[in-house]
Amino acid sequence: MIEQNISAYKRQMGLDYEKLHPKIQKRFDFSTSNNIAFVGKGIMEKIWNGNKLAVLILKILSKSNILFPKVGENIEYEIHNYPYIDQFGREVHSMNRVFFFEQEEQRFDGSATYSEIKKHIVEYLGLDHRMVFEMELKAENGAIRFTSGRQYAFFARLKIRVPSLIRGNINLLEWYDDEKKKFYLDLKVSSKLFGPLFGFNGWFDAEYIDFKDRSIPNKFKPIREEIRE
How many domains does the chain have? Predict the structure, then answer.
């Protein structure tokens, strides 16, 4: 039997996890069993969005800290991953991304957990968990690729599947450069109907934090937790 509170990435990828670069393996080896949290700090070399309709969609999503419409180059960036147990007893880790523009910061928040039902990681988007998607993982030449699968939105008691024609398809590649001794990432979000929506690429350095007290910074705590997957 696999431990419930080992890294969700190890659980989903199994032996393929060993195909990842050692730095990438360490990067995603956070759980409540090892009491390690991860903070990355670096620069987004480019942040872009799509057409006017894409910008409108991003403005709506930004109200829940799910993507945002601002664009720019050489923007300071942080990624925070804190493992914790949610109110439903699940092993969860935060996915808090902060972008420091000159006038204000923008956020892209989420919470991820390994689904015993779907045998995949699912990520709830925003601090209010109003959306969720199934996460696919793949090792590629030492890098890790994330792609999104089925997506759902929650409205009161309703759980609505987002049609594949309009959903935002996430494609993220993250890798480690041995020469530059930095982590790199390249994110693209697109829709079959609306085309390219949003993306960014850049680099960051790693910091591993002792997280025995499991106290997530207040600004990263979900304001609502969702049990439906």
Answer: 1
